[in-house]
Amino acid sequence: MIDDSENKELPFHIELLFDNKLLDIVSFLCVISLFSRSRKGISLDKAAFYFAIVTSLNISDVINEDFFKQKSIKYDVDIRFIQIKEKSKKIVVYLLNSGLVDLVQTSELCIRVNKDGSNVVRKLNSSFYKDILIKTKKVKKEIAFTNKNLKKLLGVDL
């Protein structure tokens, strides 16, 4: 009889399904690319805020002022925000080392997609990434990144 009690790792294909680092990196690049027109770039908090909303599983096609009142969506988004907040620094380091983003020092540390990063996003042919870009544009237009909205996202009573 074989004792499998010590072999508790998931098969790679299953792990990749739930924790695909490359998918997160390219999706993050897509989200922040829409903020690259700003000279100062985008802060990590702001990038994580929009990334969490855009990549949440339960996001509806209709994003409006009542977005944060929809409990099933809000629960998925706040969990996603906490997860991506942890990963965002590693993602930015990867993007920096790949030469796709630049750091911009203002009152806070910001990132900006450079020309190479913009070219990568522009050349993406996958409908998944095109959907990320469309959702990001919509969310950016409808939901402002403010302390009030960040607190709503995290479930902090105002």
How would you characterize the overall build of this protein?
By secondary structure, this protein is mostly helical. The protein has one domain (21-57, 67-154). The chain is 58% helix and 8% strand. It has seven helices and three strands. It has helices spanning 12-18, 21-33, 44-54, 71-97, 115-123, 127-142, 147-154; strands at 42-43, 101-105, 109-113. It has a three-stranded antiparallel β-sheet with strand order 1-3-2. A hairpin with a 3-residue loop joins strand 2 (101-105) and strand 3. Helix 2 (21-33) crosses helix 3, helix 2 (21-33) packs across helix 6 and helix 3 packs across helix 4. It is globular, with a radius of gyration of 17 Å. The N and C termini lie far apart (59 Å).
- The quaternary state of the protein chains shown equals single chain
Question: N-to-C SSE series?
Answer: HHEHHEEHHH
The biggest beta sheet, please? 3 strands, antiparallel
**Portion in helices:** 55-70%
The structural class is: mainly alpha
| Average predicted local confidence, pLDDT | 79
Low-confidence stretches: none
Count of discrete alpha- or pi-helical segments spanning 4 or more residues: 7
Beta fraction of the residues?
A: 5-15%
Please write out the topology:
Layout: H1 12-18, H2 21-33, E1 42-43, H3 44-54, H4 71-97, E2 101-105, E3 109-113, H5 115-123, H6 127-142, H7 147-154
Antiparallel strand pairs: 1-3, 2-3
Helix pairs in contact: 2-3, 2-4, 2-6, 3-4, 3-6
Salient structural properties:
158 residues, mainly alpha, 8% strand
Structure summary:
The protein is mainly alpha-helical and 158 residues long.
